[in-house]
Amino acid sequence: xxxxxxxxxxxxxxxxxxxxxxxxxxxxxxxxxxxxxxxxxxxxxxxxxxxxxxxxxxxxxxxxxxxxxxxxxxxxxxxxxxxxxxxxxxxxxxxxxxxxxxxxxxxxxxxxxxxxxxxxxxxxxxxxxxxxxxxxxxxxxxxxxxxxxxxxxxxxxxxxxxxxxxxxxxxxxxxxxxxxxxxxxxxxxxxxxxxxxxxxxxxxxxxxxxxxxxxxxxxxxxxxxxxxxxxxxxxxxxxxxxxxxxxxxxxxxxxxxxxxxxxxxxxxxxxxxxxxxxxxxxxxxxxxxxxxxxxxxxxxxxxx
Length: 304
Fold this sequence. Notes:
Blueprint: E1 2-6, H1 10-20, E2 27-31, H2 35-44, E3 52-53, H3 56-60, E4 66-69, H4 76-85, E5 90-92, H5 100-113, E6 117-119, H6 127-130, E7 139-145, H7 153-171, E8 178-186, E9 189-199, E10 202-209, E11 216-223, E12 226-231, E13 235-239, E14 244-246, H8 254-257, H9 260-273, H10 280-303
Parallel strand pairs: 1-2, 1-4, 2-3, 4-5, 5-6, 7-10
Antiparallel strand pairs: 7-11, 8-9, 9-10, 11-12, 12-13, 13-14
Helix pairs in contact: 4-5, 5-10, 7-10
């Protein structure tokens, strides 16, 4: 299979290229506008020069069977739209777009052309998180914090907090009846967000503090007098009387631990099988994110 990899930034280099280059039967074609970056990464992964492209048209001329898009968010709609229109299945880094309108456009376009569109929500495939689905989840608490990174609401939510919002949605044990958003906004910059989703017998709370003094990710679920914690998508601590700790195995790769290997394989398997993947559930997460941005904007107007 010919696979295009469009955009060769940090996430492509750290998470996806190591997985894709280890896959048998793939002919990778790289695209970025920087020839220096293209040659450096192409050389590092032994991808021959004819498979390196500084123009998207040149990559499309190779008639790829699928494409992974890791370009900056502001280019997602343009690049993914071109791929979809010529029938190329697309794996698109989160978010689909920087606003709900752009995300809706891509989802409708993919449906109209009957082309697969998948969003890179890797946490849905991380073993430590998928195993949480087997645990009682009356109360779900998730934190994903940063150091010294306050940001405008839209970028904060769509480029970062979206992982928290989507993971909560993935783990919810029932339908949401109430949604609450709280935030600290100063000088047009969002410092932290607290999202609460609740329904019949459950509450899910997602927190991101980008002025927390610590870069960390923690998930805690509890119910039926038991609790499970997951620290940095790696260590799992079960509480039922005496806590027990399960750590990531020494030989488990970061790509497998964080779900990149599994989500990549799921997309490739679907392409091989001719299975159509739709992004409707992903669109629900983008709808929630747009609602969060709207609420934060109102909070900012009140505190200005």
